[in-house]
Amino acid sequence: MGDQIARYLDLAASEAKLTAANMANVDTPGYRAVGMDFDAEMRGALSDLDRGTSPSRVRVGLVDGLIARPDGNDVSMDRESLNLAEAQLRFKTGVALMRQEDQRVMDAIHADNK
Amino acid sequence: MNLFGMMETSGSAMQAERMRAEVVAANMANAETTRTETGGPYRRQMVVFAANQGDPAFADSLVNVSGALGSGSFSRLDLAPGVHIAQVVEDTAPPLKRYDPSHPDAGPDGYVAYPDISPLTEMVDLMGATRAYGLNGSAVQAEKTMITSALDIAKA
To answer: Does this complex have an ipTM over 0.85?
Structure first.
């Protein structure tokens, strides 16, 4: 379980990092927004863990379907804000799960003290 | 995964946007300047933003991209974590001429060359810079929250 959560945290951090990169370039002419498919990456990570293979790299691509401004930049402020909020919540969820997992182990260790 | 790299990204953007606001302020301050070191009236300055080349290690770990989300070619440049000001350019538009023969900088024909600066354009640019600064500021806030919650894992 811990490995899965660790991978989840990694992916959430990757997502936040990409969003931060997009936000930083909100006024750079010609910049195209980058993104990743979180669900597909997570599925891939889970099957990697099942098969025991080393985790594959995160696939990042240009985001489709955004409206580019006349200067060629297609970063949308509200999309990025939403993405960042989502990544943040995912990260928090991961941390909460991780703590729960740790707590279970600690409870097992101290079971005879109770 | 380095969470602090994100702060650098947002930080570079805040720095660039602040520089942009400074240039706007300089333009507005010099809207009526007829004398400069290089001679002639002040010329409007503009910043040019360029995406950072970025940390090669991070780019390498992500440049496995063909056929991922979007289509088309995809280079390291597109994965730029951050932004920098490539250059500050001068407006090449001709100066505005105003008839004022008593002005010390008036030409022989009695016209004075003033910088072609419109307060409206400058204010819009300033607003854009402020908004982008705020956006990246809230990104830093979010990143701080994430780092703090990651520290919570270790707490009992």
So the answer is: no
